[in-house]
Amino acid sequence: DLPDVQAPEVPPQAAFRFEARLRTRWSDEDLHGVLNNAVYPTLLEEARLDYFRRLGAMEGRRFPFVLAQLALRYVAPGIGGEEVLVGVRTTRLGRTSFSQAYRVRRARDGAP
């Protein structure tokens, strides 16, 4: 049985010591000019890759783990063709698993 998915608890901005600077694409927008929700997992994946590379925790070009669960809370619409900052923080470190929190903000003004 899989555990119930709970709403993610995201630490305050000051708690994030790592941020990846990424860019959304104009083609990531839907017909309403809003960043498609499916883009966010990719942004988190790119930030996670950068995070583990900087920690020296990569095994060559591979992650040494499997992503088991992802829960997202959307708080503001994004747009395509914009630089974003993706904060990554490990919030729990267990013997065989860990949890992380992410925060995506616009690079130009820091807004969600």
Structural overview:
It contains one helix and three strands, in the order βαββ. With 112 residues, it is α+β, with helices and mostly antiparallel strands. A three-stranded antiparallel sheet has the order 1-2-3. The longest helix is centred in the middle third of the chain and has 17 residues, at 39-55. It is globular, with a radius of gyration of 15 Å. It starts with 17 loop residues before the first strand and ends in a 6-residue tail after the last strand.
Task: Provide a brief overview of the structure.
The protein is of the alpha+beta class and about 110 residues long. The protein has one helix at about 40-55, and strands at about 20-25, 85-95, 100-105. A 3-stranded antiparallel beta sheet has the order 1-2-3.
